[in-house]
Design a protein that fits this description.
The protein is of the alpha/beta class. It is built from 14 helices and 17 strands. Strand 11 and strand 12 form a beta hairpin. The protein is globular and about 70 Å long. The N terminus is likely disordered. Bound molecules: ligand C6P.
Length: 418
């Protein structure tokens, strides 16, 4: 068990788990009279006080539009916004600041690439390769673009454990493939995909790779130069930051070749009714007033993660997963969906023949928040021939005590639902 006296070998968080939890006001709340047990971190993580304060300070002290005014407030807000861009650049080790494009989330980042890359590089007969594990956000944008461009999707199959079949990937990789777009970590099964291998193999054929890092960025250190990945997308709200902000990282050489995604203020150099010209990176892809407070909040969330330490986070979350898997597998009626060897902080399961919603509701009444349903991965559910799962997803602020409550709650649900 992890408590204030325990130490982790790579421990950067010199504070105990209780002190860390005190940073998150929502973790002190109750639901139906029970202390909240928040195990829905893959949907969104909770926000520490420092993030909430940074956003509040912006609105109270220097609320202003950015990149537009010479006045004091505008300069201050612009500086804070651009510091955030540098912080993201450092966090993922991008080569250039202007390779960081602020979006409203992973979904928008993927749509941006699908639309803009598609217009520039995809023609009839081409294919885009995704996998059976993908979130709808990494399926639909490609489908829409393929319909528009006369292209089609190729889908990497998975094995019964929920791991990509890499020999199938090798076989599918041919000259029709214009881009490989896969998740780093599956939101439903927690599978960690062999992304380095995927990138190397795709690059051997000069095919760029986009990673959906929505479920990876908060769990593992990502170095885009080491991975040599071409595009990377993630959301602020899944990494202890606010909703309404996300990031698209793209290699300068590709982004420079791609047309704007949206038109409006900030993304132009000159405008006339006959012909307009476009701004340089990153502004070419940031039309309109961005979510300034959210970008500032994201910067502080990254600072917060850095203060806890990604090594600590990874090690702590692995402890929690191992503990949860061990405890849950003691329940006779429970069946895991997805048993990949490499996994990050999500566990999906079913209890006997019960519907996941019923289990989720009973857990909710005990103050335990899990997600139930298809988790925006309907094709994956179809492959497993199930309507959905119960998903418990963890963050470093969770405890073994909370997992014990989950296990007790699932046992109770198994009895009540027969
Ligand atoms: N998954 C979940 O409960 P947005 O909504 O744009 O912040 O993120 C979309 C998204 C894209 N890819 C993956 C792998 C994701 O997990 C998500 C969001 C949440 O699993 C909400 S559906």
């Amino acid at each position: 068990m992890f408590n204030d006296n325990d130490t982790l070998t790579t421990k950067k968080a010199h504070r105990g788990i209780d002190q860390i939890r005190a940073d998150f006001p929502i973790l002190q709340t109750t639901v139906y009279g029970h202390p909240l047990v928040y195990l829905d971190n893959a949907a969104t993580t909770q926000k520490p006080n420092v993030v909430l304060k940074a956003m509040d300070d912006y609105y109270k002290i220097y609320n202003s539009n950015i990149h537009r005014g010479v006045h004091y407030l505008s300069q201050k807000a612009t500086d804070a916004f651009e510091v955030a861009r540098r912080r993201v650049q450092e966090y993922i080790n991008a080569k250039h600041e202007h390779e960081i494009i602020f979006t409203k989330g992973t979904t928008e980042a993927i749509n941006l690439v699908a639309s803009s890359f598609g217009k520039r590089y995809v023609k009839p007969g081409d294919t885009i390769m995704i996998s059976e594990l993908e979130h709808h956000s990494n399926i639909i944008p490609w489908q829409l673009m393929c319909e528009d461009r006369g292209a089609s999707l190729k889908v990497i199959p998975i094995n019964e454990k929920g791991e990509l079949k890499m020999e199938a990937f090798d076989a599918l990789l041919d000259e029709t493939v214009k881009l490989v777009a896969v998740s780093f970590v599956s939101n439903t099964l927690g599978t960690v995909n062999p992304v380095k291998e995927i990138i190397e193999k795709a690059h051997a054929r000069n095919i760029p790779v986009m990673l959906d890092a929505a479920q990876a960025i908060q769990h593992v250190g990502i170095d885009v130069q080491f991975l040599d990945v071409d595009f990377l997308a993630f959301s602020g709200h899944k990494m202890y930051g606010p909703t309404g902000v996300g990031v698209l990282y793209g290699k300068e050489s590709l982004l420079n070749e791609m047309p704007p995604y949206q038109g409006g203020g900030e993304m132009i150099k000159t405008v006339s009714f006959e012909k307009s010209t476009y701004n340089v990176l990153p502004f070419k892809f940031e039309a309109g007033t961005p979510n300034v407070a959210e970008v500032i909040g994201l910067e502080v969330a990254i600072n917060y993660i850095n203060s806890i330490g990604l090594d600590f986070i990874r090690e702590r979350e692995q402890q929690l997963i191992t503990y949860a898997l061990g405890q849950l597998q003691e329940i006779d009626e429970l069946r895991f969906i997805g048993e990949a060897a490499e996994r990050a902080a999500s566990i999906s399961f079913l209890v006997g023949d019960t519907h996941p919603f019923d289990v989720g509701e009973l857990l909710d009444k005990q103050g335990i928040a899990v997600r139930t349903g298809h988790h925006c991965t309907e094709p994956l559910m179809n492959i497993f021939k199930i309507p959905g799962t119960v998903r418990a997803s963890f963050a470093f602020y969770n405890t073994e005590e909370e997992i014990d409550k989950l296990v007790k709650g699932v046992k109770k649900a198994a009895v009540l639902l027969g």
